[in-house]
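re: ur question from earlier - yeah i can do the single chain one, its not a big deal. heres the input i used so u can compare w yours
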Amino acid sequence: MSFFQWKDSMSVGIDEIDKQHMHLVSLIDDLYNAMSQGQGQNELDRIFQELFDYTKTHFFTEEKHMFVHQYPGYEEHKQEHEKFVEKIKSYKETFDAGDQKAAVKVANFLKDWLTNHIMKTDQQYGPYLRERMNR
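and the output i got, formated as tokens:
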């Protein structure tokens, strides 16, 4: 059963970035499915590794496009990315220290991130970048 599914409303209209966002939606779905089967803690190590890989690739991609095309919200957006990475590192540390509720905390954080960052903040740069990338 799927908890999160990609919706067209999540698209920023840039294929490379949308595919990366789809991967995050899939990771969140994987975590929720594992949790529903009582396996959230067991899957969390893999999820953390994929999140760290995801952030390196995805944040670089977004920030590269923003920088090259002189997106006016570049610095603020980059700071949000840095806060995300720090938060994930913090959750990883508490998980490694034996936090039995780490999976729930990470799942809730990712759900909030999806809702607030991708669905709101990322939507702001979509039109700006699409216009400049298609020139």
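Residues 47-135 form a domain with the Four Helix Bundle (Hemerythrin (Met), subunit A) fold (CATH 1.20.120.50). not sure if urs matches, ping me
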